[in-house]
Amino acid sequence: MRYIYLTKTTLYNTLEDKSNMKTIKTIVLSSLIALAMGAFSSATMAESMDARISYAPADAIDMMIGELKKAKLAAAEGKSGEEVYKLIKQSMDYGKDVNANDVVDRERSRANETIKKARSMAKSNQMTGIDEHLDKAIQQLEHMKTLI
């Protein structure tokens, strides 16, 4: 018990000394700054880590076209609107990696409008006429590949 009392007394005496208190404050502040820098840098580096898969713009366009062709085939086979919707949604997700330049981005926006029309038709299970929207989107994406 006496040892604990001596330890507390020593600690209190240490903290009462102004120079020691200044040193402790400096150490605590330095530690907090180091932790904050580590947290920000790891959040920044997470984008370039292997956990997030990113594709080249041309590859992303090819994957978009592939998913739209799968959706067109699924609609022709009479699959449910939900299955076609998932394929179209996957195509739009691949489109997030298409960011080559401003011209390509504008064309991607135009193609996305057409894809959104097809997606809304699939969501409401209206499969008649969905092929036209999918064909138009595929043509727009094929044209977009020439702009890269």
Short description:
This protein is mainly α and 148 residues long. The protein contains six helices and no strands. It has two domains: 2-48; 57-146, Up-down Bundle (Four Helix Bundle (Hemerythrin (Met), subunit A)).
Report what the structure shows.
The structure is a single chain. The chain is mainly alpha-helical and 148 residues long. The chain is built from six helices and no strands. Helix 3 (57-76) packs antiparallel against helix 4 and helix 3 (57-76) runs antiparallel to helix 6. The radius of gyration is 29 Å and the shape is elongated.
Number of strands: 0
* Count of discrete structural domains: 2
Q: What form results from the Cα inertia axes?
A: elongated
CATH topology of the largest domain: Four Helix Bundle (Hemerythrin (Met), subunit A)
Q: Spell the H/E element sequence.
A: HHHHHH
What is the count of DSSP helices, taking H or I runs of 4+ residues? 6
User: Structural class, from helix and strand content?
Assistant: mainly alpha
Ranges where pLDDT stays below 50 over 5 or more residues in a row are none
State the major sheet: none
- The first-level CATH class of the largest domain is given as Mainly Alpha
Radius of gyration: 29 Å
